[in-house]
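Work Package 3 (structural annotation) set out to generate three-dimensional models for the target panel prioritized at the project kickoff. During this period the team completed the workflow that converts sequence records into discrete structure tokens, so that structures can be stored uniformly alongside our sequence database. As a representative example, we reproduce one entry of 105 residues exactly as it appears in the project archive.
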Amino acid sequence: MKNLDPSFNEKCYALLQKIPQGKVTTYKKIAKALNTKAYRAVGNAMAKNDQLMVIPCHRVIKSNGEIGNYRLGVTQKKNLLEKEGLVIKNNRVEHLSEVIYRFEN
């Protein structure tokens, strides 16, 4: 019998698909929305994302505003975020408080 309970990664991806273009979230906010402190596990889930165009993991950044890593490279992540209207300077998202996505509790 197949386990129907979604994996941790699948739960991360489901949350990520709620984030609209032009908004970002943090590894910490995703972990908190999943009632865990497993921030690194969220990062690992993003790194394992095989559906980059469907599951927009480029919208997940560090809590300090740094854009962090990306499977296709930091330059590509920066380009994707800028294409969505975000301003990136020195690999940090500008005006973070205005563009951060907050999950409903």
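The chain has one domain: 8-97.
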